[in-house]
Amino acid sequence: MPSLKKIVVQDFRNIEFQDLSFSPNVNCISGNNGEGKTNLLDAIYYLSMTKSAFPAPDRYNFRYGTAGFTLGGVYAMENGLESRFSLKVADEGKKLVRDDKPISRMAEHIGTLPVVMVSPGDGALVSESGEERRRLSNAILSQMDPEYLSAVQSYTKLLAQRNRLLKDIQPDFGLLEVIDGRMAGPAAYIFDSRKRLAEDLRPVVSEYYRLISGGGESVSLELKSDLSAGSLTEIFASHRDRDLALRYTSAGVQRDDFIFTMDGHPIRRGGSQGQQKSFLVALKFAQYEIMKRSYGFAPMLLLDDVFDKLDMGRISNLIGMVAGSDFGQIFITDTDKNRLSSVVDRITEDRAYFDTVSGTFTRVE
Question: Does pLDDT of 323 surpass 60?
Fold first, then answer.
């Protein structure tokens, strides 16, 4: 499994320059809020996904007063060899290099360094629109299946063309039908992939939630999609007049959503803050399990303030899951250094501790 041995971060958010070496097992980063713990984890995420774990333009990650940032990582790969990756991001674009060889298309890299990130920002998966949940499904599936990523890219490009055509005063209906036909294949692949993902995640999320919460409530999830009613061409045909009136595409997989429930009711309305947090952690650990099954090895796991909003009973259950499973390299952040060390020291002796102050990380014993 890929393991991050060393990272170099330059001009990324509040990190001016850092050169850090990590444990292949558990790495603990402690510090007060706003010091840069999350920034370091997001830098690691960037090296895997070539974009932030958070929905913001790349330039928002430039350190104040700079014109870009650079990330470099040395990884122990699953074949036993080392590989060096570097990512330079500026307003004019991104440049990704592996072992001194440029990677021309970022999509070719996705899935090479599989990663799962759990953060307080995951609350948006419950509270915000379906776009957040589609982003999650895309992040999971694109790492496991290059064809899925290609389908999403093709569909998105064609959707933009279709929407531009619908804005014309007199749309070319022949061209519209051609575009509709070209979108059908990618749409079907996306729908089938998301449907299988929901089916695969459902029992695993339920089991992880039971382990975290100690039982009580039952949780589930399902895919809601326009394509459940028929093919994309059929859906587009039935929505033709509506699309022409609205001047944009009102149906399709760009409207897919994942419905999260607790005891049969939407969790966003019926779940307490602690229950929602427990569900989200269970969801991300289920993502981790599904990806591990797909790859045959464990992805890197980034746990950002995962203990926030969980009581000590649920924390103990969560750590028990980590200690008892075949997990790979883990990065954990917490504001409470003593809590973090008391928990991690029970799991393993192979761990590294870092203190964080104003974007500077110091390894401590």
Answer: no
* Mean pLDDT, rounded, for 57-76: 96
Within the chain, residue ranges assigned H as helices are: 37-49, 124-127, 130-144, 146-166, 173-213, 232-238, 240-246, 267-270, 273-295, 312-324, 337-344
Cα 173 to Cα 128, 158, 162, 169, 317, distances in angstroms: 35, 15, 11, 12, 58
- Helix 130-144 and helix 273-295, axial crossing angle in degrees, nearest 10: 20
By the 8 A CB rule, do 252 and 287 touch? Answer: no
Distance CA 19, CA 9 (A): 7
Q: Is residue 316's pLDDT more than 70? A: no
CA distance 359 to 264: 44
Residue 234 has pLDDT above 80, yes or no: yes
Tokens of 189: 């692949």
Give the distance from CA 155 to its chain's centroid. Answer: 20
CA distances from 182 to 89, 121, 147, 151, 187 (A): 33, 36, 16, 11, 9
Q: With beta carbons less than 8 A apart as the criterion, state whether 334 and 30 touch.
A: yes
Query: Helices 130-144 & 173-213, crossing angle to 10 degrees?
Result: 90
The three state secondary structure string of 315-356 is HHHHHHHHHHCCCCCEEEEECCHHHHHHHHCCCCCCEEEEEE
Around Cβ 41, how many Cβ atoms within 10 Å?
A: 24
Q: Which of 114-118, 209-213, 229-233, 282-286 bottoms out in mean pLDDT, i.e. has the lowest?
A: 209-213
Contact indicator for 327, 319 with CB cutoff of 8 Å: no
Q: Is 235 within 8 Å of 229 (Cβ atoms)?
A: yes
Residues 40-51 pLDDT 10s: 999 999 999 999
Over 88-144, what HEC string results?
Answer: EEECCEEEEEECCEEECCHHHCCCCCCEEEECHHHHHHHHCCHHHHHHHHHHHHHHH
pLDDT tens per residue across span 257-312:
999 999 999 998 888 888 888 899 999 999 999 999 999 998 999 999 887 766 66
CA 27/CA 31 separation, integer angstroms: 14
